[in-house]
Design brief:
The chain has about 525 residues and is α/β, with parallel strands linked by helices. The chain contains 18 helices and 16 strands. It folds into 4 domains: about 1-75, Winged helix-like DNA-binding domain superfamily/Winged helix DNA-binding domain (Arc Repressor Mutant, subunit A); about 85-195, NAD(P)-binding Rossmann-like Domain (Rossmann fold, 3-Layer(aba) Sandwich), CATH 3.40.50.720; about 225-370, 2-Layer Sandwich (Beta-Lactamase); about 385-529, Alpha-Beta Plaits (2-Layer Sandwich), CATH 3.30.70.270. It has a 6-stranded antiparallel sheet. Strands 3-2-1-4-5 form a 5-stranded parallel sheet, with helices on both faces. Strand 1, helix 6 and strand 2 form a beta-alpha-beta unit.
Length: about 525
């Protein structure tokens, strides 16, 4: 019965452990050796190892100790306290008389205590409120108590509130059996309830910290800002029981915030994408402190955020994400009704922001390194290696779909002379200006890159030579018409198209390069197709 109940709980939390796996964890929890576990469950060592491996995978942990902690946090298992038998004392045998709401409350409080055995429950009404609970828990139920021997019962708790029942019980109970009722039963109930509350609080805290550890394991392997920020917002909103939240990171200038993840808001909330930091606003306040801010009602804040007000937000819990004294972002949690929050929740949120700050800083570094590896540092265009990757992909796509594509090779005319006359810094300005002109003229689907030195290239999907000719001629004219700082600058271009001018990528590059130098020989400031 216990295993089936645990299985139901496990299924609700998205984890389904078999009865054998639960039995193994419970025995390990009690300190049993592998040999003892195998003997009691009739398992081989290999079978035990297999079960443990599958259990760790289901619970997403690395060790059996973590598996036990995770199972307790999920509610699949109860926290273990050694029973009286294990420490040399027999369990206390208790009977409950009265199965109304009070008796049922006492029953549920005592049932999980490993030092107590509930040997019976009784009520003159066979349809009393708590009878179903006694049946479900396999506790014997009586409408009339049988004759009890001293070894059968230690304590009887009378929760009927009837003095007549207390008198009758004293007549039939063994003299050694203690009878509790009235104030004694209430005191016992209060003490037990307090113990239950503390255990529940401990289990809640354990579950929260297990969730934080789980979040750490997940985001440790994420290298995308979108994925990492969404995981952070999702976990934070669940841990703090708030239906909405968002995460924003600071841009490189420190003047704007960029929204990277949001949950629980309308579509309009995500439209802006970024916002300037308003002096005196919520963002400005958060960027100038190191601890979380909480407003039970945002209307009570000094300068309510108009976007949050428009969304109907009431409560706001937010904190800066700080790494090495630098703010890298802000984590917000929101509720659409007025909400009070505990000191423990603020502490938990502060701990979570440490995870979030470390993750944001790490992912930003990864994305920066990736961008640097893919792009030219001066112009911001894709570099030679990235271009070759894109050409290979486009070539494979064109072959699969029997399509065409074109490659344009471009070179700035007389660039060496320009550098010699005006210096490399001025030459760099020309390279940047030409890059901007090419990017502005290209389609979204085109790939513009710096091939090397003063040479550029544009990969044009799905356009053959005749279709790409007007585009190339327009590029040449656009650069020729641009007013550069010192003197007139022009470009020459060569074009190759698949499959007309080459069967491989290298053949196409060579063909386009040959047409480029033909344009140079014919007078420059032109394109050869």
């Amino acid at each position: 019965m216990t295993d089936s109940g645990n299985l139901a709980l496990a299924a609700v939390d998205g984890v389904l452990l078999s009865p054998v796996e639960l039995s193994i964890l419970k025995r390990l929890q009690k300190g049993k050796s592998d040999a003892e576990v195998c003997s009691s469950l009739n398992l081989t060592k290999q079978k035990l190892a297999t079960h443990l491996k599958e259990t760790r995978q289901k619970l997403n942990v690395r060790t059996r100790g973590h598996a036990i902690d995770r199972a307790i946090a999920l509610g699949v298992m109860n926290s273990y306290v050694p029973s009286g038998n294990e420490v040399g004392q027999p369990n206390l045998k208790i009977g409950i008389v009265g199965c109304g709401r009070g008796g049922t409350a006492v029953l549920h409080i005592l049932k999980d205590n490993p030092c107590i055995d509930i040997v019976f429950a009784a009520d003159t009404d066979p349809n009393a409120y708590g009878v179903k609970s006694t049946v479900k828990l396999n506790i014997p139920f009586y409408t009339k108590l049988p004759i009890l021997e001293p070894d059968d019962i230690d304590v009887v708790i009378n929760v009927t509130g009837s003095e007549e029942m207390a008198v009758e019980l004293r007549k039939i109970l063994p003299p050694e059996t203690e009878l509790m009722g009235g104030l004694s039963a209430m005191l016992m109930w209060q003490i037990t309830e307090e113990r239950r509350r503390r255990l529940a609080e401990r289990d809640r805290t354990l579950k929260e910290h297990e969730s934080l550890c789980h979040l750490g394991e997940i985001i440790e392997n994420i290298d995308s800002m979108a994925d990492a920020s969404y995981a952070i917002v999702e976990y934070a909103s669940k841990l703090l029981n708030m239906p909405a939240g968002s995460l924003a990171i600071c841009d490189d200038t420190g003047e704007e915030m960029i929204l990277v993840a949001a949950k629980g808001f309308s579509e309009k909330f995500n439209v802006e994408g970024k916002w300037k930091i308003r002096p005196g606003g919520l963002t400005d306040m958060l960027l100038n402190q190191t601890t979380p801010l909480f407003f039970a009602d945002i209307a009570e804040s000094p300068d309510p955020n108009p976007l949050l007000v428009a969304e109907g937000v009431k409560s706001v819990l937010a904190a800066p994400l700080i790494i090495q004294r630098n703010v890298v972002g802000i984590l917000y949690l929101n509720d659409f009704k007025r909400k009070e929050i505990r000191t423990e929740d603020i502490s938990l949120f502060s701990l979570l922001t440490i995870y979030a700050a470390l993750t944001v800083a790490r992912v930003k570094s990864i994305e920066k390194l990736w961008h640097q590896s893919q792009h030219d540092g001066l112009t911001g265009l894709l570099n030679h290696r990235s271009l070759m990757e894109q050409i290979e992909k486009e070539d494979q796509r064109a072959r699969r779909h029997d399509a065409c594509y074109s490659l344009i090779m471009i070179d700035i005319d007389n660039f060496k002379a320009y550098n010699d006359e005006f210096g490399h810094l001025e030459g760099n300005k020309v390279l940047k200006a030409v890059s901007r002109l090419l990017m502005k003229a290209a389609r979204v689907s085109d790939t513009v890159s710096r091939f090397g030195g003063e040479e550029f290239s544009i990969l044009v999907p799905e356009l053959c030579k005749d279709q790409v000719t007007p585009f190339v001629e327009r590029l040449v004219a656009t650069v020729a018409d641009y007013e550069f700082p010192h003197r007139h600058v022009t470009i020459s271009a060569g074009v190759a198209s698949y499959p007309d001018n080459g069967a491989t990528v290298m053949e196409l590059i060579k063909y386009a390069d040959d047409r480029l130098y033909q344009a140079k020989r014919e007078g420059k400031n032109r394109a050869c197709i």
